[in-house]
């Protein structure tokens, strides 16, 4: 079936060949009112597309699903299909990453959390400033709420500093039941193990060569790399610390999460508190 746009082009071509409008419409089988009709859909879609382009420039690694959440916050109520159509029409497809080779194996989930503050996962991410200084980021994530509790940035993070960060988080949020990490030297040091034991927290260590057992924090680290470290240009460690903390707050309070039904971690925690409140009659 030929689209109305293509049929209008056929009428224009026929008129260029000397045919009248009546004759051209009769040959093509189109009403004479159709060529003069001005579509209203482009004018209706223009503000949405403009907002999409603005949000895409602000968040270049977000796809149309996450951008749709931001559009709804601006008052644009769109269906998934319309959002996808306009996203493709504006040419805003996110470049695909090259998939990594995956090794087929059993992926057990040990101590899967069913409430907030049950399992904290922590790991390290490395990056470099513009002047060549390397820095290290200690990331701590609540596996159930997906909230990033802390990102500590420093040139070197040893066991003493890890304990300081975890102690501060425990004083703010309370102690979790489990701490999940890999078998790196920073996580299996006697100082950290002694502190975790004294705090009444159980440890869950990944098997060597099986990072998927810490899947929540590995997923967070990938987003952290993709949406912050790979985009920002840090002139110093101090600047990196400020920018990364700003991104962490954005991650918790603004960025919608598909695993949380496109709520932010803060909204998800508030929803949990409301669900736990007793009904008042």
SSE arrangement, N to C: HHHHHEEEHEHEHHH
Figure out the total of helices: 10
- How many beta-strand segments? 5
Radius of gyration: 27 Å
Strand content bin: 5-15%
Cα(first) to Cα(last) distance is 61 Å
Q: What is the mean predicted local confidence, pLDDT?
A: 84
Uncertain regions spanning at least 5 consecutive residues: 103-109
Structural class by secondary-structure content = alpha/beta
Question: What's the arrangement of strands in the largest beta sheet?
Answer: 3-2-1-4-5
Helix percentage range: 40-55%
The biggest sheet, with number of strands, parallel, antiparallel or mixed sense and barrel status, is:
5 strands, mixed
Overall geometry comes to elongated
Entry keywords:
281 residues, 45% helix, elongated
Element layout with pairings:
Elements (H helix, E strand, L loop, with lengths): L3 H13 L4 H8 L12 H18 L5 H10 L6 H10 L29 E10 L5 E9 L5 E7 L4 H15 L4 E4 L8 H9 L3 E4 L9 H15 L7 H17 L11 H12 L5
Parallel strand pairs: 1-4, 4-5
Antiparallel strand pairs: 1-2, 2-3
Helix pairs in contact: 1-2
Write up what this structure looks like.
It contains ten helices and five strands, in the order αααααβββαβαβααα. Mean pLDDT is 84; it is low at 103-109. A five-stranded mixed beta sheet has the order 3-2-1-4-5, sandwiched between helices. It is an alpha/beta fold and 281 residues long. The longest helix is centred in the first third of the chain and has 18 residues, at 41-58. A hairpin with a 5-residue loop joins strand 2 (134-142) and strand 3. It is elongated and about 90 Å long. Helix 1 packs across helix 2 (21-28).
């Amino acid at each position: 079936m030929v689209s109305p746009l293509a049929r209008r082009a056929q009428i224009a071509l026929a008129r260029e060949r000397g045919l009248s409008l009546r004759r051209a419409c009769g040959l093509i089988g189109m009403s004479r009112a159709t060529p003069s009709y001005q579509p209203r859909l482009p004018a209706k879609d223009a503000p949405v597309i403009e907002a999409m382009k603005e949000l895409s420039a602000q968040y270049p690694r977000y796809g149309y699903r996450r951008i749709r959440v931001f559009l709804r916050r601006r008052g644009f109520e769109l269906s998934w299909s319309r959002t996808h159509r306009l996203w493709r029409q504006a040419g805003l497809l996110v470049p695909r990453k090259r998939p990594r080779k995956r090794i087929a194996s059993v992926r057990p989930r040990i101590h899967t959390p069913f409430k907030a503050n049950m399992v904290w996962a922590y790991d390290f991410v490395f990056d470099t400033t513009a002047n060549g200084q390397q820095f290290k980021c200690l990331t701590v994530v609540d596996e159930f709420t997906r909230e990033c509790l802390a990102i500590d940035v420093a040139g070197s993070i040893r066991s003493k500093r890890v304990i300081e960060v975890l102690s501060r988080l425990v004083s703010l949020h309370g102690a979790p039941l489990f701490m999940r990490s890999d078998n790196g030297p920073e996580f299996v040091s006697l100082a950290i193990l002694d502190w975790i034991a004294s705090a009444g927290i159980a440890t869950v260590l990944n098997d060597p060569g099986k990072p998927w057992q810490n899947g929540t924090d590995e997923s967070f680290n990938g987003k952290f790399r993709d949406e912050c470290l790979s985009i920002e240009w840090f002139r110093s460690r101090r600047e990196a610390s400020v920018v990364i903390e700003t991104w962490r707050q954005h991650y918790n309070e603004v960025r919608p999460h598909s695993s949380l039904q496109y709520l932010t971690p803060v909204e998800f925690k508030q929803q949990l508190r409301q669900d736990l409140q007793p009904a008042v009659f």
